[in-house]
Design brief:
10 strands, alpha/beta, about 240 residues, 6-stranded mixed β-sheet
Length: about 240
């Protein structure tokens, strides 16, 4: 089932196009790495796909709904995003932070009902965060914090999860752990997951396709294959 489609998309700020003519389709269960050099426009594209900023032109459809016609709450029920910026919040425990992902479904008071509490617990179990749920967010390691951010996104129960360099501040062990968790989520829960990275080898190991933004301003899709890494590196060359 197709979850995300973009057609003739130009992304940027104001009237300035950062990257032009992007078209693609992503299906249920796809795990997709977005590759490109620094400054090419990866974060701009991800923010546009999540609805945080508007495209300059073109269209984005999520679950057969046009993104620009949706309310903020409806967008939050279709796409969740984990940004690359480090977040530091005092006096909130992991479980309560994860529960913030239920905000699109609660009243303005933010009170969780039994169903919400059950979803929070299910996500904690899926992410293996039982030993972490009582820990304060500002006392976590980078790896723990990233897992908690992903858990909050998972609590939104969106068909599409977008992550901007989710392994940027992590050591090798935590990188493999995070990407392995994301792969399990895409395969077992049939989520469409898109994440930016500079690590071609990690993309090769965990993803079924790559989207490449090269310096010739070409947007190219590469499917998983025997020569996947070599093809990706060739396209990325200036």
């Amino acid at each position: 089932m197709m979850q995300l489609q973009a057609s003739s998309l130009n992304v940027g700020y104001g009237s300035k196009v950062v990257f032009p003519n992007i078209s693609f389709a992503a299906n249920e269960g796809d795990m997709i790495a977005l590759l490109g050099v620094n400054g090419i426009g990866k974060s701009t594209l991800l923010r546009t796909l999540s609805g945080l900023q508007k495209p300059i032109s073109g269209s984005i459809t999520i679950a057969e709904k046009e993104l620009d016609k949706l309310s903020a709450v409806d967008k939050a029920k279709l796409v969740s995003i984990v940004l690359t910026e480090r977040i530091y919040i005092d006096n909130i425990r992991a479980r309560d932070f994860i529960a913030l992902g239920r905000a699109p479904y609660t009243s303005w008071l933010g009170q969780l009902n039994d169903k919400d509490e059950a979803i929070v617990q299910e996500v904690i179990d899926v992410m293996h965060l039982q030993k972490l749920e009582a820990k304060f967010f500002n006392e976590m390691s980078d790896g723990e914090r990233q897992k908690t951010l992903i858990a909050r996104a998972l609590c939104q129960q969106t068909p599409l999860i977008i992550l901007d360099e989710p392994t940027a501040f992590l050591d090798f062990r935590n990188k493999r752990d995070i990407l392995g968790t994301l792969k399990n989520i895409s395969e077992e829960l049939k989520k469409t997951i898109i994440f930016s990275t500079h690590d071609i080898e990690a993309a090769l190991e965990h993803c079924n396709k790559c989207w490449i933004m090269n310096e010739q301003q070409q947007f190219i899709e590469v499917m998983q294959s025997a020569n996947f890494a070599a093809e990706a590196k060739r396209i990325l060359e200036p």
